[in-house]
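Posting this for the archive.
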Amino acid sequence: MRRSTPGSTLVVLNWRDRRHRSAGGAELYCERLARELAARGASVVLVTSRPADTPAREVVDGYTIRRLGRWWSVYPLALLWLLRHRSSVGAVVDSQNGIPFFSPLVTRRHTPVVLLVHHVHQDLFTRALRPLAARLARWLEGPASRRVYRRRPVVVLSPSGRTQVRRRLRFDGPVRVVPCGADTLGVRGERSAAPRIVVVGRLTPYKRLDSLVDAMVDVQARLPDAELHLIGDGPARRELVARARETGARVVFHGRLSDARRDTLLSTAWLAVSASDGGDWAVSLVEANAAGVPVLARRVSGLRDTVRHGQTGWLVDGEPSVLAEAITRALVTLTDPAVARTFGQRARAWAARFTWARTADGVLQALDTERARLERRRSGDRERRSGNDLVVVLSVQQSALPEGWESSRRSGDVWVSDGDTVRALLTGADEGDVEGILVRLGIHRDDPSVSVLVARHADLLDDRHPVAVARQDARGGGHAA
């Protein structure tokens, strides 16, 4: 671990890391975030649990992994670690995988803490736990977290996650959408001769892979050469193998593969499929798109943000029972090489906007927002109103902006430009906020080049031409995005 100066270390808290046998998308997000921030010169420590046969301390890609405890003991041990090192902790990214670490209870009063919510577990707790345990888990995720993280920024992966955090958990701080990147950008390969579906991810019951195995029986009745390849392992594997054997579905179980072998197999796919009931941003589908593979998923929370219907793949309404017809229709459509090529090009273009650099920028912006709030509180300023979940899009012709306008922007807002028009995503902004921003920019509200609209989900995920913005980095120094 690098020598830490007071308040210099950015700590990422997550209950598992990628070496855990149950690691998934949350672990990928935290490790890629840590790697990106370390590459920018930050001192980063990932505090996590310690599976068997892993070292207590390890340096990976420029950041330090500190492993403590097991499944549940990691939570109190991580708080003790934070308490012991609180003088050197400059910022905390606290992951809530159903239950957060409650880091604000032990960090210094003016240390910025951002809560990272991968998805909301309220319904999953009800299905997976005994009634008393489920009630406790729902309380920890909801009312307890809401009280401890009051007014602090929350980072979510998708617009659907933002809605869930606001409506289900009723958090009253700012909520920022920061999708994950895609490791498969640039991966290319030759698709298989026969129709091939490839699914990458942990084999767990809530992903409803049993319904996908069942669907393959009907798909293969129409397309005898079609095959399903499952890459990954998990608690549902034994049941899925038995189900494939019982139904006669042709399914290839690859288990966990190296990244290179996984990407090679993925690049041969015609289609990637998700049968899940929901959750949040599906990194496996974005990575399929990044490799030029169209995707098909049920139109449920999170997945409807990941898939551009009719552009990068298809969304299906209804129960998993409709999957067979939808998959068959998609594979028949993709038999035309020209159509498949068009879908692949659109998929790559969509996925190309999701990079780990953009993820790190979004998390740092959330930390900057919290750092500024804490500074205002330290200076005795009255706490600003919170809980405004509105995001508006302000559009202004580039030619209407005065020289040096960049210095007049609010910290934490996202500004993008296509060369002719500058667009700003203004989080928590009402009419008065917009008027104030226009005044600072020297533009009259009635200028015909100005438009103000409520942001759509697509706006929250768009970041084609970011305008550079100066901000504080994870160590408190200057940084330009």
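DSSP finds 15 helices and 20 strands in the chain. The longest strand covers residues 89-96.
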